[in-house]
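Hello forum,

I keep getting stuck at the same step: I have a sequence, I want structure tokens, and every attempt I make locally crashes halfway through. Rather than fight my setup again tonight, could one of you with a working pipeline run this one for me? It's a single chain of 103 residues.
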Amino acid sequence: MIHARMDYNDVVALDKKIPADEPVFLIRGQDAVGAHIVRQWADAFESAGGDPKLAESARAHALLMDAWPKKKLADVPDGTPIATATQIRVEDADSSGNGVEEA
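Reply #2:
Ran it on my machine without issues. Output:
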């Protein structure tokens, strides 16, 4: 895996950077709509006042995704359970009052 953030390339260190209960959404280079979504994120991030250098890094990563030779829509192998955000976070939201925490 090639992450846009170099500090995420070390899987062992990544385990210490992202809490086990923090939601994460992974978009692969082979995803037919992935690069488009990454560009939309970069635009929204920059519009919200985010660091333009980070937005540009995301756009550069989208170019790498564009260049990935195999494209397909995301799928899930038969029989693989899919956890929804509602299933994962509903008890936490009830106990904390809102289920949303500032980063």
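Residues 4 and 57 are 7 Å apart (CA to CA). If your local run keeps crashing, start a new thread with the error log.
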